[in-house]
Design goal:
The structure holds 2 protein chains of 2 kinds. Chain A is of the alpha+beta class. Chain A has a domain of 89 residues: Arc Repressor Mutant, subunit A. Helices cover 49% and strands 16% of the residues of chain A. Chain A is built from 6 helices and 3 strands. Chain B has one domain. Chain B is mainly alpha-helical. The chains are: A alpha+beta, B mainly alpha. At the A-B interface, α3, β1, α4 and β3 of A face α1, β1 and α8 of B.
């Protein structure tokens, strides 16, 4: 249904199928968004910022690392292990493409619902 | 899990969490109270250069010892770093300008007419014009609203200091009487903020944060 709505409006618009599903998953999106706004951050910082558990964050981190979106550097700070993460150029570019696609997708969808309420209009949630 | 995807808010939240520890309040308050105490004491050791060097060094060490084990490490982008550098530069320039000015006001004939005004209203003029402005600048560039509140509180404190202190004392001694309570107030609030921070972000075991 989404594709038909989009296709009927313009050929230039991205189709929902083109959206990067690896980034689109909410937890990974939050993780990438947090890494996008800084140069690098460690595991603990990302746990605090995203509210994810160790296992959850670790699992998403592995998927993003496997896709080449993030660099994971393990080192010792004193005697304690420290895992530092940063977005790769590839990951940064993929996130920017994702942002543009989502913005365009929502910009060109009619904002009013059949009941007349506009709901989430995108200015808050998608204010990139 | 947080549900906000506003990038500016995410960056700001990442930055603000670093100033939730109250260490900036503690160190700045300590430096102000110490300067005030030093001016009033008979100790004749030039502490200013030591404070300028050791203040930021102690602050950085406390960040490593208290803040980073609780909220982790982050390296901000160039935009945020340049703002921090501007604050440090503004602080260094202000301190140097003050040192040069205080020397000339004390010895140079050029500032003769100013000397009378300064000796009469110096506590209010220098206090509000310099100390309050520094606090406001720190608060503005670091986005720590507490410092803007300290700046606002400091103005009436300097006015009160002007009326309560002996006009026979020199300007720096009169300023010191306002600086000490202001510094102690900042230290007290810094301690409360630090206590809240430690409770809100307990240290996690190594196994919890992963190696």
């Amino acid at each position: 249904m989404w594709r038909s709505v989009v296709d009927s409006r313009s050929d230039d618009l991205p189709s929902v199928g083109d959206i990067d599903k690896l980034i689109h998953e909410p937890a990974r999106l939050l993780l990438i968004a947090n890494l996008y706004v800084v140069e690098s951050a460690d595991f603990l910082f990302l746990m605090r910022q995203t509210g994810m558990t160790f296992g959850n964050l670790s699992s998403h981190m592995s998927k993003l690392e496997a896709a080449g979106y993030i660099d994971v550097e393990k080192e010792f700070v004193g005697k304690k292990p420290n895992t530092k993460l940063n977005l790769t150029e590839n990951g940064r570019r993929a996130f920017e493409v994702y942002r543009k696609s989502m913005q365009q997708l929502f910009t060109d969808v009619p904002s009013g619902s059949p009941t007349g309420s506009s709901g989430e209009d995108g200015n808050g949630f998608w204010s990139w | 899990m947080s549900d906000s995807f506003d990038l500016d808010s995410i960056e700001r939240r990442a930055y603000l969490i670093y100033n939730e520890d109250g260490l900036l309040d503690l160190i700045t308050g300590f430096m102000m109270a110490f300067i005030g105490y030093y001016v009033l004491s008979t100790v004749d050791i030039p502490f200013a250069p030591f404070l300028a060097i050791f203040g930021p060094a102690v602050w950085a060490s406390l960040k490593k010892a208290v803040t980073e084990p609780r909220i982790g490490q982050v390296k901000f982008g160039p935009g945020r770093r340049s703002r921090q550098q501007k604050v440090i530069m503004a602080f260094a320039v202000t301190v140097n300008v003050l040192l040069v000015l205080s020397f000339f006001v004390d010895t140079g004939p050029v500032f003769g007419p100013w000397r009378t005004t300064l000796s009469t209203y110096g506590v209010i003029l220098v206090g509000s014009g310099v100390v309050s402005l520094i606090l406001f600048t720190i608060g503005h560039f670091n986005e720590v609203s507490r410092f803007k509140q300290y700046a606002a509180i400091s103005v009436p404190m300097f006015v009160v200091g002007h009326f309560l202190t002996d006009p026979g004392l020199d300007l720096f001694q009169r300023l010191a009487y306002a600086l000490i309570p202001l510094g102690l107030l900042m230290m007290a609030y810094g301690l409360v903020t630090l206590w809240r921070f430690v409770r809100k972000y307990p240290k996690l075991e190594d196994v919890e944060i992963g190696g």
